[in-house]
Protein: GST N-terminal domain-containing protein
Organism: Amphimedon queenslandica
Amino acid sequence: MALKREYKFYVKASPDGRGLGDCPFTHRANIGLKAKGVTDVSLVLIDLSNKPEWYKKLNPAGSVPALQYDDEIITDSYKILEYLDETYPEPPLNPPNNKEAEEATGQIFGAFSAWIKNTDDSKDSELKEAFEAELEKINNYMGRHSWSMLCSDSWSFADCVLAPRLYHIQTVAEDFKGYTRLNEYYNLKQYMDTVFLSEEFVSTCYPREYILKGWAKYRK
């Protein structure tokens, strides 16, 4: 019998304070909750620009997401995923090939961020090439397997992490750089089409304009 617990899930609030904000770390943990079918969850919206004193006492780091049950609180998104997989074993989020998937996909967000945040025009081409090398690595990894997702046809830790990152990458690259080449990576495009339409992703998503607002200070 599945363990019954009531949870409070502390998340970044949207700019209007009424819904989910654009945090990819919150998004990954939220996808994990949905993938595990955990439904007894109360969302608590946190304004990160004006954190409540009670939240800073509960979580001195003031970070989101945080998952609370009974007197326990988990304040790291990946540890939340690990907790969920240990507490609710089915369906598993950590299959044997998850590490391989994480190695193939783990550098993409850093490469993308370096390109977007760069202020030296002389380095732009080099950073763009490094970003595209990571795209190619992911595309090649996906091409070696027939699954619809990274490790199987179900969510894994690696998928929970990658999907929100790709959502940010696609949104910001198109708007800031006019970059639309993601669609040229066939296997990656197929993957994005799958995860972006999944119930777990759609039900935990936030509008693209929130992402653009969050990245606005890096726009040239």
Remarks:
- The chain has a mean pLDDT of 96.
- The beta strands are 7-12, 41-46, 66-69, 72-74.
- DSSP finds ten helices and four strands in the chain.
